[in-house]
Design brief:
Strand order of the largest sheet of chain B: 6-8-9-3-10
Shape of chain B: globular
Number of domains of chain B: 2
Strand content of chain B: 25-35%
Helix content of chain A: over 70%
Strand content of chain A: under 5%
Structural class of chain A: mainly alpha
Number of domains of chain A: 1
Order of helices and strands of chain B: EEEHEEHHEHEHHEHEE
Oligomer: heterodimer
Largest sheet of chain A: none
CATH architecture of the largest domain in chain B: 3-Layer(aba) Sandwich
Distance between the termini of chain A: 33 Å
Number of helices of chain B: 7
Distance between the termini of chain B: 25 Å
Number of strands of chain A: 1
CATH topology of the largest domain in chain B: Rossmann fold
Radius of gyration of chain B: 17 Å
Largest sheet of chain B: 5 strands, parallel
Chain lengths: ~230, ~200
């Protein structure tokens, strides 16, 4: 037996959540399939005009990513809350913020990362040029972790509430608007021949801010929910 | 040692208890008694810091637990009504993860030895969803074997356990007290620990 370190604890939580996700693969697949379906519905709905599809592609992909990330947020803490694991996490002799950060990281790996990897395939469906596709992916890589982190605050606040899922979306979606604006703005900028750097830097700044503040805020929200 | 002074706690508008004071010294065990709804679980959860007391202080080694925070948690172990085990994981994985969360890294051999002692020989690698209620409780109780905590806070540790397991838990508690540990617990079943005076605290 030996004492675990702060970093060891972070790795433990990430590995545990990934292992659980592996054993419940259906949950991971629903998010991804929802994303693919929402994106694929648009060409059917608005018609096969290439110009229009190309113009709306970034917006459609981003909004779909936003909605599907909402879908999996409810599960972030609820299972651990119901079976008592969350109590034990609060009694861990390390900072709860670190544990929360581990849970958010694992959550992003199973619900955000697959969307980023799937996006180029769906982008081709909308005839996006290669350069725009590249910027879209970088934007999603920077933006989806922010969605997970902001969502974690909402998930912690609505823990144990009946019908918390809807409330969670109402709470979190408005806060995600900046991510959506800069993410789509970056793609728009490259398509009109401008540089996407400013939009992407702002997304990066949002990511850094979220990384610093959201685990702590989420940990406080969890403590309130446990009372 | 654990000192509680003038503690008051309420749930909603209902005052559960007030003016509660006691101290628990190394090697001592205390049973919290009271009817259903008298606040036994609330008291134990307050000792864990989940609930904020309305009044009063809880001190560990002379310092308030709110100030100690993580240093206090490193020395205490809480076992609640919920087992905190995952159905999808095996007993072995569950034990190693819960020990890891409480700050102790277990290798596979140590975890196997603990599970065998707690009576789960041959079931270490089965997913816990196929285990019975009593066996799942045993998986949770296996944490007692690998914990380095001084203070054990046990909420109804004996639910769903058979006679053999109850005897084993009594033995574990006796060993813990002999190592100068402290135990505070609730139960509705008789629990005897040989050679130690059982203190009791009634909530009414």
């Amino acid at each position: 037996m030996k004492k675990s370190t702060l970093f060891g604890l972070l790795v433990l939580v990430i590995r545990r959540d990934l292992l659980l996700a592996m054993r419940r693969r259906a949950d991971v697949l629903t998010t991804l399939i929802f994303f693919v379906m929402v994106v694929s519905l648009f060409p059917l709905g608005v018609g096969p005009e290439m110009d229009m599809l190309r113009k709306m592609s970034a917006g459609v992909l981003w909004v779909a990513a936003l909605l599907s990330s909402m879908l999996s947020l409810g599960r972030l803490f609820s299972a651990d809350y119901l079976d008592g694991t969350l109590e034990q996490m609060m009694l861990a002799p390390q900072s709860l913020s670190m544990l929360v950060l581990g849970k958010i990281a694992a959550h992003w790996m199973v619900s955000g990362l697959p969307l980023v990897l799937m996006a180029p395939v769906l982008g081709v469906q909308f005839d996006m040029p290669a350069q725009a596709l590249g910027v879209l992916i970088i934007g999603l890589l920077l933006g989806t972790p922010v969605l997970s982190m902001i969502g974690a605050i909402g998930a912690a606040l609505t823990l144990g509430l009946r019908g918390g899922g809807v409330l969670l979306s109402l709470l979190v979606l408005p806060l995600c608007i900046p991510v959506l604006i800069f993410g789509t703005g970056a793609v728009e900028a490259v398509s009109t021949g401008l540089s996407a750097v400013s939009h992407l830097s702002l997304l990066g700044a949002l990511l850094m801010l979220a990384l610093v503040f959201t685990p702590w805020v989420t940990a406080q929200a969890l403590r309130i929910s446990m009372e | 040692m654990l000192e509680v002074s003038n503690l008051a706690c309420s749930r909603g508008d209902h005052r559960l208890f007030s003016g509660l004071s006691f101290a628990l010294h190394p090697g001592q065990i205390m049973q919290v008694q009271g009817e259903n709804g008298s606040g036994k679980t609330s008291l134990l959860r307050t000792l864990c810091g989940f609930l904020m007391p309305d009044e009063g202080d809880i001190a560990w080694r002379g310092e308030r637990i709110r100030d100690l925070d993580e240093a206090y948690y490193a020395e205490m172990l809480y076992l609640g009504h919920l087992n905190a085990i995952k159905d999808e994981l095996s007993a072995l994985e569950n034990l190693r993860i819960s020990a890891g969360l409480s700050g102790v890294e277990l290798d596979e051999r140590e975890a196997m030895a603990a599970l065998r002692r707690i009576g789960l020989r041959g079931r270490e690698r089965l997913p816990t969803k196929v285990l019975s209620q009593g066996q799942r409780r045993r998986v949770a109780l296996a944490r007692l074997l690998v914990s380095a905590a001084r203070l054990w806070v046990l909420d109804e540790p004996l639910t769903a356990l058979d006679v053999g397991a109850v005897a084993l838990i009594q033995e574990l508690i006796a060993e813990h007290l002999a190592r100068q540990g402290m135990v505070i617990f609730t139960t509705h079943q008789p629990l005897q620990v040989a050679g130690v005076e059982m203190r009791s605290l009634s909530l009414s």
